Amino acid sequence: MTAEPILRLEGITKTFPGVKALNDIALELYPGQVTALVGENGAGKSTLVKIMTGIYQPDAGEITLDGEPVHFPSAHAALEHGITAIHQETVLFDELSVAENIFLGHAPRTRVGFVDWKTLRAEATDILKSMGAPIDPGARLKDLSIANKHLVAVARALSIEAQIVIMDEPTAALSHKEIEELFVLVDLLRQDGKAILFISHKFDEIFRIADRYTVFRDGEMVGSGLMAETDQKKLVQMMVGRSVDQVFPKQDVALGETVLEVKGLSHPTEFDDINFTLRRGEILGFYGLVGAGRSELMQALFGATRPSGGTVTLEGKPALAKSEADAIEKGIVYVPEERGRQGAVIGLPIFQNISLPSLKKTSRNGFLDLAREFALAREYAGRLDLRASSLSQDVGTLSGGNQQKVVIAKWLATQPKVIILDEPTKGIDIGSKAAVHAFMSALAAEGLCVIMVSSELPEIMGMSDRVIVMREGRMAGEFTRDALDAETLVRTAAGIEDH
Ligand SMILES: Nc1ncnc2c1ncn2[C@@H]1O[C@H](COP(=O)(O)OP(=O)(O)OP(=O)(O)O)[C@@H](O)[C@H]1O
Ligand SMILES: [Mg+2]
User: Fold this and answer.
1) DSSP readout, 44-58?
2) Domain extent at residue 292
3) Of all atoms in ligand 1, which is nearest to the CA of residue 399?
């Protein structure tokens, strides 16, 4: 590990109106090594990625590649220098084919200068084959899963013979299996001598895959070194400037009467014969492997899809929602897993994003009441520890994790009777996670019913009063809080029998 860095960033500073996103940052990347970049939501990670890929220009600072000073006035310039990225929000082109995405900006040309489609397709096929990726180069990108889109981005890195590959939270939306496949590729890239920057909020991944780390806090670089010489506690301490206990702040709440009752709920393809009740103040966890049908069940409760049979009763009244609007009216809301796409309205300020579904509450005699809208937004933004310079800021300028908090705030502000949270802390940093959990617990104590879909065992075990495990669209087990045991949950979810 005595190699010289291939890429060196020094004194990088970037200011947006009202916020210094990066202040005098330094970062080094080494060939054949994975460097993990960690930091809270809004610490400046994605901003640095955009500077390294020519999307943003720094206000100050220097970039040296192979010992030579370089500038990236455009994304194309960064690409020409062999730097490529899988961004937190994909910047590939949905309407183009897989092969076109791989070779965009550097397509093979015929002697007379036209794109050589035959070679392009053949080379794309070769690269995908060498990666063992089962993707048709002619398929349109929009028809691919997120995991396969990442593979296309990796193929693109291979096609430009990139020296530097950046991955900004590549695993956030992947299943366990897809993550394993991605890690195999990261290893290949490392063996190939590429310098890799890997951004993730998941410490198990970082400790598994990274050789080095760099920590950002509030736009400053607060530490870097070898993974072998640190541990999770030290990293978290650097990230948040204090130590965070991984304790779950679930308050003891006396459960009230039954609020929601689901009987025999079935769907033609996704789930079958689901039965459960939910009491006032209860947090009901849904655990299972990706694809177990949990999200599909929740979408049906929210009126987004049609079940084929069964009943839903809320406070004694039939409550099978016909549409999302109907569900909101009845008091059932769903915060989806993919909050980026299904959640925030980019282009609108934060406060309007939060008050949008609550307009009835914030308008007076049919007129919008700005003061009320602001008050509502301020309350929920505060309770979720949202990091923004002002609530009038366009939600699109928030960091990824903070956009997710806006979406959670927006649904909570409707003051529903039942809130369904699908993977509530995915993409949220370790410090904010505790804030989200504390808030969930407080809401339950106020009498809200919470359904929490999560694939994270500590979260499921720490926050739930009761857990339902789903497997292949059916209920595979139900456990009360005092009977929760990690091994049993995993076995039940995977369908492994006890000996
Ligand atoms: N285009 C922009 N305009 C204004 N502010 C911005 C813009 N892009 C980023 N910011 C601000 O810069 C800061 C750093 O954001 P960045 O996206 O780099 O954070 P991050 O570390 O990637 O966070 P996360 O873990 O949530 O993805 C945040 O305060 C964010 O609101
Ligand atoms: Mg980011």
Assistant:
1) SHHHHHHHHTTSS--
2) 258-494
3) 17
